[in-house]
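To: structure subgroup
Subject: Chain for Friday's discussion

All,

I'm putting the inputs and outputs inline so they're searchable in the archive.
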Amino acid sequence: MPSPLRPRDLALALLVILVWGVNFAVIKVGVADVPPMLLGALRYLLAAFPALLFVRPPKVPFRLYALYGMTMAVGQFALLFTAIHIGMPSGLASLVLQAQSFFTLLLAAWWLREPWHGNQVAGLVLAAAGLVLIGSAHGASMPLAGFALTVAAAAMWGCGNIVTRAVGRYGPMNQFAFIVWSSLVAPLPFVALSLWIDGPGAVLSAVQHLSLRSMAAVAYIAWISTLLGFGLWTYLMSRYPVNRVAPFTLLVPVVGLTTGWLVFGEALQPVHFAGAGLLMAGLVVNVFGGPVWSLLKSRVRPAA
């Protein structure tokens, strides 16, 4: 049986979850003053500089840097930032975004021909039912467009996970350095999107009138959530089996929902609680249901 996390590493894992959970509330603060696409550009500009001066780029083909940057960075966060900007509650966004694990399963089955297991199918069905319930409660407190954009952001995260698997074929590497250098891909597309959507005048005005609150939000998203969060996560993933570390991400929506409620007074309706329960149940079945499914199959397998 794999050894549990050492107390120090357990504290680091919980710190990452806290950082990532709070990040959704910080995004809401950021998009209140800065256009979403410009916020994305500033985030990845700060994530790349000055960190790239201290780490060498891993030997990975440029196309994978580009694919990772366009899916995990531009695709995911252009959609997520816009969703929160138009009214998606930050707490619910932290929950719905966890659907990325099921998009990863779907994409891996289609693109990588990975087989499915019974617990994954059951988890997908539960999570899909939860998303339908959450989406059915759209209204003034959660616009349907915001919900749809968050689901699309989860799909882009799933695409990014497939790219990450392709990157892993190039052997052990400094994942933190890969994140830093892949961040260079995102600023220009984000700026182009902001110029197209918001117009040059709005972009220039937003840059000229950045408040301390906005700059603090950008700094948190870039340095604390991106570099510190992913840096510590990479460290933990390199020291322990995936199944010992990955389940901690189930706590991110707990922190996100709590932060949204405390900071912004985001209150969930009963149908949101029901949908959240089904989605979280699906995630738990997907993460922890493998051994149970294997045991059930061994029980029903006919004797030779």
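Points worth raising on Friday:
The chain has a mean pLDDT of 88.
The two ends are 29 Å apart (CA to CA).

D.
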